User: Fold this.
Amino acid sequence: MSNTYPMALLLTDKRCVVVGGGAVATRKVSGLPEAGAAVTPKMTEELQRLAARGKIEAKVQEATVADIREAFLVIASADDPTVNEQIGRAALEAGQLVNVVDHPELCNFFVPATIGRGPMSIAVSTDGTSPMLARRLRQQLEGSVWA
Assistant:
C-alpha cells in the first residue's frame, strides 16, 4: 500500500521552477502552463518554443539555490545529479513542493503519468519507483479508453 495521498494541485499563477533543460525537464514542464503555472525552466528546443510563445519564462544559466527561493513548486531534473540533490535539499528545507528526478527520497511529491481530456483525467503513479511502468500503463490506457 502506498503512503502517498493522491490529489489534483491548483497552480494558477503559482511560480514553478524546473531545473534542467533536457528531455526529462521537457516532460516535467509540459503540463504546467496548461494548469496556469508561472513556469521557469532551463531549455530544450521544445522549451524554447514555449518561451517564444510566452507560455513559460526561461533562463539559460547554471541553476542555483537562489533560483528556487520564491517558488511554490520545484522540479530538479538537471543532467547533473549534484545540482539536483542541492536544489532538492534546499527546497525541502524551505518547505516547498519538490520533485527530484531519480531521487524519490528527496521528493515530497511525485508526478504521475496522466491522460487528460477536458476536465477528465486519469493518473498512474508508482510513487517514483518505476516511471517507465507508469508511462507504459498510461499508453495502454490511452489506447483503450480514448481510442
